Amino acid sequence: MQERILKMLREDKRTIVLVTHKLQYLLHADWIIAMKDGNIQREGTLKDIQKSETELFEHWKTLMNRQDQELEKETTIEENPVLERTNLRRTMYSREALLKDDEEDEEEVTESDDEDNLSSVLHQRAKMPWRACGKYLSAAGILLLPLLFLSQLLKHTVMVAIDYCLALWTEHAISVKIEPEPKNCSQCMEFDHSPYSKVFSILCCLGIVLCLVTSIAVEWTGLKVTKKLHSSLLNKIILAPMRFFETTPLGSILNRFSADCNTIDQHIPSTLECLSHSTLLYVSALVVISYVTPMFLIALVPLAIMCYFIQKYF
User: Fold this and answer.
1) Within 10 Å of residue 142's Cβ, how many Cβ atoms?
2) Residue 78 neighbours by CB under 8 Å, 6+ apart
3) Which residue windows does the record flag with biased composition (Acidic residues) (predicted)?
4) What is the rounded distance in angstroms from the CA atom of residue 218 to the CA atom of residue 270?
5) What's the CA gap between 1 and 14, in Å, rounded?
């Protein structure tokens, strides 16, 4: 703006047509054409618009102050950023004799609005709505999500079956050992471990395969969800109106693509696997304990209520 347009082109008596949404450049314009929805909204000099359209000018004034604050935060302008910002601000304010009242008040209002927006954003980030979880799971697809939970369910079913087979094997082996020996030694028979060992080995191999399938399903789900959410986020950012980029800090947009995408990519799949694993583990433990000791069901209700309130407290 300073070196090419205001110096090189303007000093060379060139006709300049500048299409922009940066309102701080209006101070350098000889003639302004404001357009809205493809139609000319206002036309004239800045002083003419201030006299005839007071509300529109006040709106522009607010946006100029906001964009000026963004300009102050820039740290890499040309070779000498401090001198460049000073010259630009001096040029702007020398030609802007009209914008003189209530600038400090508007800056304070803008800062307070930014703080309120930041607090509301942090408050929203502190809460995880159920629809966000549902959107994450639905992004996995119709086939991949059932595969994930079915593999987890089968894996824990096989793990319970392995424990049951081992307990049954041990119980039968001990019962044979403690039985009194018959008087006729021809009736003595050793306990046959082969059927139990075969079933136990098959269940262990099946459990290993299901663990592998579950891990692949979790990573595959995380990869597919990350690609889909990232593509959706990128499309919405590209198609966002310019007002969004004027009011949203650049750091917030970059954080969505860096820190948040990193969380979705690396942390959520492992957390989801841990959650499903722990849930099925304690459900299977409750089922086994309730089957072996039915009296446990009486104490289950008060224990569940107590654990719920302890969980909410911590």
Assistant:
1) 7
2) 2, 3, 84
3) 101-116
4) 8
5) 14
Helix or strand (DSSP H, E) at 36: strand 32-36
Residue type, 229: L
| Alpha carbon distance 280, 308 (integer Å) | 17
H-helix or E-strand spanning residue 152: helix 144-178
Per the DSSP assignment, residues forming a β-bridge with 35 are: 40
Q: Give the span between the Cα atoms of 119 and 126, in whole angstroms.
A: 10
Phi, psi for 182 (deg, rounded to 5): -70, 155
Give every CB contact of residue 311 below 8 A, 6+ residues apart in sequence: none
* Positions in the chain whose pLDDT score sits under 50: 75-79, 81, 84, 91, 93-109
Q: Which two tokens stand for residue 268?
A: 């959520």
301 is written with which tokens? 């209700």
Q: Specify the pTM.
A: 0.48
Bridge partners, 119 (sequence order): none
CA distance 10 to 32: 16
